[in-house]
Structures are given as structure tokens and as C-alpha cells.
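Mods, move this if it's the wrong board.
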Amino acid sequence: MNPITSARLPSSVEVAGAEVRVRCGFRKQIALESLDLESRDGVMGALWLCYGTTLPDGSRSLPDVVAEHAAEAAEAAVAWHNGAWSLMRYGSGGSGAAGGATPRPVFDWGSDACIVASDFMRFYGIDLLDPSTQMHWYRFMAYFLPLTRAGGLVAQAVAARSPAPGQASKAEREGRRQLARAWALPPTELELRESALRKF
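Not the wrong board. C-alpha cells:
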């Protein structure tokens, strides 16, 4: 069943046989995108973002089943989260970097937040910068994914940062390099480390 056309967007996962509600707001789920899920801190962050609640006394709490089955709960939450990325099942992500190198990222939630907000306002009339704007993660992604393909700033940035096609002419490659510089993301930690090693 397509979650967008169903009457109810998916809002819970199964953990150790129990149905557990997930925090579905897009802001928490965007924060999840920046976590290192290979680290213990990243997994704990995912648990708090997806299941945590703040009690009236200000303390934070996880559901008992989540605390008792943390690894399974984190895996279920991440699978639920990633399911929203598959809402648009057509097109190509483009070619990777040549020679098996790690491809440069073409999008970053933190660096690109303003162009995402701009495109949401331009195309949908939705003000993401207004703290009162609430939206289910799956609904947010149903709006966001088309923005990566055509028509707005997000699409322009993604296209400029993507590798040029192999058959591109010299002039096209130079044009792409200029666009890539204009839309360049800050260097990744790996790139900074590699640059530092080259200098010393």
C-alpha cells in the first residue's frame, strides 16, 4: 500500500511484538539525517529523536519496550524513517564518482536548509521557518523529493553538484565546474582530513 494514498500515514513501528508510536514530525526526522548511526551516540540520538518524550517535570523518557530492546527499536525507527525516501520510485540518482572514489555529497540538510525553505514557500506556500508549521515526515518527503528533480533551487543545487555526464563537451564541463563552485557545500570531515594529510 502506498503510504501517501492511504488514509493514515505510517506513525508507528513494531518493537519486540509491541506497536510503538514514532515521533513523526519533520524537524526531528531531519535531525536524524545528520546522526552517525554506526556509533553508540548516534543510535541513542535516534532513539531519543524517534521515541523520546519530555515529562511534566522536564525529565526525558523512552517507552519501556524501546529501552529494553534498544537495538531493535533503533533499527525499526531508521527503517521507518528511510521508507519516506522511497516514496518517489523513478528516475536515476546519477553516476557516482569516477574510479570508485566516494562521491561528493550533492545535498546537505544543514547547508541547504534555506533553499529547502525557499522552495517550500515558492511551490507549496508552506512556511517551514514558522515554528508552528508541523508536518508528518512522510508528507514532508512527498513534497521534498520532487524538488530535487526540477524547477527550483534544490534541483539547481543538486544538479550543479552532481558529476557531469561522460559525454559532456569541454565547454559543458567547464560550465558545470563553475556551477559546482557557486553551489559548493562545505568540505566534509573526510575531505578536511585528507587535505590536512596532504599538507603535512
